[in-house]
DNA sequence: CCTTTCACCTGTATGC
DNA sequence: TGCATACAGGTGAAAG
């Protein structure tokens, strides 16, 4: 659910409230949040206390807080993760932690930073030497907002794959930050069916769908990025983070905003895909009879990005 | 090496 | 009422 725009808003909120602050206490309420890393709750706590937080950074859906400019506290929100800032001078008296608070950090200005995660798909990890780019995410490609992002290279990468375009958009080692919602939105905008084989896509179309993904996420960020100025680092678990103006996602049976045709929902990898059956058509050859020419050429072996 | 499937999680909604 | 099931879906390990 939190995809790139939502994570970026969280990052900006953290920059405002924890950047430049020192961690004075750390409490692990549920060690399952640390599952991705090797540290016990005790070692995790010890690794955080007395550390100075730098400006939080982000790649795709991951964000991290540099610690003393060397190590990093790496976070992934998973499906339901949130960060929330409270002023414990107000809230601590007799208040019990949030029901789904998993880790709570005390900062040197009296604020508390809580990692709240109902479904426990999120994670927190200490990454030694990870201030620049934490080792566990070295395989995550740059996202469309990253200065290192090269759209044309990604399009070439996509076309060199033997898969379908929606799967490739969700592949975080090709381009990061896109999840199920923005993948569907990008495909609708580019008028491409998610099951379109990548190797049959023209360079122009591959670039178009990537450009659409970047545009959709930039617009979502613009729409949502202005709304936090309370003590909440705004991420709300399920009720739609921002007023996302979605064109297809979740709109089964409603009219396509371009052509009026009913939006269709299909099952895809144990989740849902939404698309317009008129605007987004598959190429007609399905392998019977006079099929499309087989694409055999491989321009280059898949290049690693990032 | 590349692609696909599945376990990991919990709260809410729905069917019998 | 109670129980079972579906659904939300990002990630990485494992399988193909």
Short overview:
Strands 1-6-7-5 form a four-stranded antiparallel beta sheet.
Task: List strands and helices in order, with pairings.
Blueprint: H1 4-17, E1 23-28, H2 41-48, E2 57-59, E3 62-67, E4 71-76, E5 81-87, H3 88-91, E6 101-107, E7 111-117, E8 123-127, H4 151-159, H5 165-169, H6 180-190, H7 203-224, E9 264-268, E10 271-275
Antiparallel strand pairs: 1-6, 2-3, 3-4, 4-8, 5-7, 6-7, 9-10
The structure holds a DNA duplex (16 and 16 nucleotides).
Structure commentary:
The protein is of the alpha+beta class and 306 residues long. The chain folds into 2 domains: 4-137, N-terminal domain of MutM-like DNA repair proteins (Alpha-Beta Barrel), CATH 3.20.190; 151-275, Helicase, Ruva Protein, domain 3 (Orthogonal Bundle), CATH 1.10.8.50. It is 24% helix and 19% strand. Strands 1-6-7-5 form a 4-stranded antiparallel β-sheet. The two termini are 24 Å apart. Mean pLDDT is 85; it is low at 226-233, 235-241 and 287-306. It binds a DNA duplex (16 and 16 nucleotides) through residues 1-3, 32, 35-36, 61, 76-80, 100, 117-123, 161-163, 167, 170, 172, 179-180, 238, 269-272, 301-302.
């Amino acid at each position: 659910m939190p995809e790139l725009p939502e994570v970026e808003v969280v990052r900006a909120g953290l920059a405002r409230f924890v950047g430049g602050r020192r961690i004075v206490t750390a409490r692990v309420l549920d060690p399952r949040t640390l599952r991705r890393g090797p540290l016990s709750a005790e070692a995790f706590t010890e690794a955080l206390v007395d550390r100075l937080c730098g400006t939080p950074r982000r790649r795709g859906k991951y964000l991290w807080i540099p610690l003393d400019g060397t190590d990093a506290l790496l976070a992934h929100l998973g499906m339901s993760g949130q960060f929330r800032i409270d002023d414990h001078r107000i809230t601590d008296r007799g208040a019990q932690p949030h029901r789904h608070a998993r880790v709570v950090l005390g900062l040197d200005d009296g604020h508390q930073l809580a990692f709240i995660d109902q479904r426990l798909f999120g994670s927190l990890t200490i990454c030694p030497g990870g201030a620049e780019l934490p080792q566990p995410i070295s395989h995550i490609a740059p996202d469309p907002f990253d200065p290192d992002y090269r759209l044309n290279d990604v399009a070439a990468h996509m076309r060199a794959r033997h898969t379908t375009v929606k799967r490739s958009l969700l592949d975080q080692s090709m381009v990061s930050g896109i999840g199920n919602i923005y993948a569907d939105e990008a495909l609708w905008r580019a008028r491409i069916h998610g099951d379109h084989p990548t190797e049959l896509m023209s360079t122009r179309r591959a670039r178009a769908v990537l450009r659409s993904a970047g545009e959709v996420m930039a617009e979502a960020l613009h729409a949502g990025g202005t709304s936090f100025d309370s003590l909440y680092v705004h991420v709300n678990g399920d009720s739609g983070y921002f007023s996302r103006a979605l064109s297809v996602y979740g709109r089964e049976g409603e009219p396509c905003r371009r052509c009026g045709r009913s939006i269709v929902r299909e099952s895809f990898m144990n989740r849902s895909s939404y698309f317009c059956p008129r605007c987004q058509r598959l190429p007609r050859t399905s392998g019977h009879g006079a099929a499309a020419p087989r694409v055999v050429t491989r321009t280059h072996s898949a290049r690693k990005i990032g």
